[in-house]
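Internal tracking record. Fields below are filled automatically when a chain is submitted to the structure queue. Please do not edit lines marked as system-generated. If the sequence contains nonstandard residues, flag them in the REMARKS field before resubmitting.
Queue: standard
Priority: normal
Entity type: single polypeptide chain
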Amino acid sequence: MAVQPSEDRRPALSAADPELAALVRAEERLQADTLRLIPSENYVSAAVLEASGTVLQNKYSEGYPGRRYYEGQQVIDQVETLAAERAEALFRMDHANVQPYSGSPANLAVYLAFLRPGDTVLGMSLPMGGHLTHGWGVSATGTWFRGVRYGVRRDTGRVDLDEVRDLARAERPKVIFCGGTAVPRVIDFAGFAEIARETGAVLVADVAHIAGLIAGGAHPSPAPYADVVSTTTHKTLRGPRGAMLLTTAEHARAIDRAVFPGLQGGPHNQTTAAIAVALKEAAAPEFAGYAHQVVANARALGEELAARGFDLVSGGTDNHLLLIDLTGKDVPGKTAAKALDRAGIVVNHNAVPYDTRKPFDPSGIRIGTPALTSRGVPAAAMGTVARWIDRVVEAARTGDEDTVSEVRAEVKVMMDACPAPGLPLV
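SYSTEM-GENERATED OUTPUT FOLLOWS
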């Protein structure tokens, strides 16, 4: 639930740095008043927020529980063990490392554990929906390693496992990544695992976007198939900004050594504590209802948008995410995203498969339903959300700022009626 207001919830910060305190209050207001449709954003609970700001911030804890390089770790060891055990139970994996600072360092640890510079990695192409750290050229992973990329079919917008198999047989990668940042369909973990076994590759499932859906039973789990599962702890999982690596027992030691001492020093213990809280929340029965509602909302929103002539990549969604090609609307993605932002609807411009426009000014937008679902916005309201998007995209094409302002006022009314968890009642 929302946090009750007070005269000043951060008196020490206000006294020490009123300028920064004012910016925090401004961000609280922005998050409260806007319809956040960026798929990677969400609201954490008040409990997760509190855990993130504890005296655990004061501790330095290089190493792992029972094997630290600093004394005074009696409590910290218990905190990290609790988080790891909860992750292992929730995702049904043998081992969990909860120390990675974020998703990209977690994926870098995979490279350090299993590859040497110049080795081949097979991942989804960034413009097709993959992630920078899956071997894309501008990333360190594409600079130090040989990235080979698969995409999606032009006619379906879906991954073609025959293409993946052919590439794997020809290129013999040591690691295969499945998953990405703009993948609106169920990931066939079993199909990827079969290819990895045939070609002798380590299969890494990057489930950063869908971890909460997996935890809530709204998306199939990679646990029976993947050697390593990499995930952030925010997004659909509704935890703090951190990451985890889950592995089979066979690969636990290699991953642990890659994280520390391979890439990182001391873990961020306050984040580890908040991860533990989020994992406990994700194991509760009501979390499953949230996860399934995220998918129901995304599907309903997709159907409403399609009915208004929006071109959905792959024709729709199986998860929390919709990728929309605005070419047919005669509006560039960036122009639409900025207009929607002015209307209080926060999305991101995004490349679509086989996009002919430049990456920083692409043809599409990417939207998702985790944050609005956390606010309790129901599937029945997705028609209203779709109408707002339709009105603003058309207004962006014609330069109609009056419509943008009208939608902004309507959005605030809905947001006031659906307060965000963890935020003060500003």
